[in-house]
Amino acid sequence: MKQNFESYYRSQEELKPKVFLKLGSVHLTRGISPFRVDDLGKFLTEKAEENETGFLSIRQMVAYRNGKSLIGKSGWESVGMFLELGKMDKWTVVDLRPLREKLIKDLIKTNEKYTFEILSYDLLLLPPNDSFDKVNY
C-alpha cells in the first residue's frame, strides 16, 4: 500500500495534491498498528510532517447495534468509556487531540488501551444505531 501511494503521489507531487483515503482504522494508526505493523498511517503521518501538511486519522467505533448498547459486551470492555459518548440517534465526533496533548505532558493517566487509541487517532466517530443487513427479497 505504501509503495502504491508513494508512486501515485509522486506522479502528482508538483500539484501539491490534497489526498483523502478511506481505509480501516487498523491501517491508519499514527504509529504502529494494533497488529504491531509499521502500517500506512505511520507512513502518512511521516509524509505529512515531511511535506509540512496535515494528516487526520479518524477511528470509527460502533456504540449501538440493533438498538442495544455494546458497552460491556465481549471485545468492547476496554473502550467502554468511549462507547458511553455515543448516542443511539445521533452521530458523535470526539476530538482526541486535546487528550493526546495532556497524555504526552503527563497531565492525565489512563490504561494501555485508551492510551493506544488516543495516541493513534485524531478523531473518534461514533455513528447512531447500527444494524445488521436485512434481506430485501
Summary of the model, kept short:
Strand 2 and strand 3 (68-69) form a beta hairpin. The protein has 137 residues and is an alpha+beta fold. It is built from 5 helices and 5 strands.
Please explain how this structure is put together:
The protein has 2 domains: 1-55, no CATH class; 58-130, no CATH class. The strands form 2 sheets. Strands 1-5-4 form a 3-stranded mixed β-sheet. A two-stranded antiparallel sheet has the order 2-3. With 137 residues, it is an alpha+beta fold. It is built from 5 helices and 5 strands.
The number of distinct structural domains comes to: 2
What does the main sheet amount to?
A: 3 strands, mixed
Order of helices and strands: HHEEEHEHHE
- The end-to-end distance, rounded to whole angstroms, is 37 Å
Task: Count every helix, treating DSSP H or I runs of 4 or more residues as helices.
Answer: 5
What is the strand arrangement across the widest sheet? 1-5-4
Strand content: 5-15%
**Low-pLDDT windows of residues:** none
| Number of distinct beta strands | 5
Q: How helical, in percent, are the residues?
A: 25-40%
Shape type: globular
Provide the descriptors you would attach to this structure in a database record.
137 residues, alpha+beta, three-stranded mixed beta sheet, two-stranded antiparallel ribbon
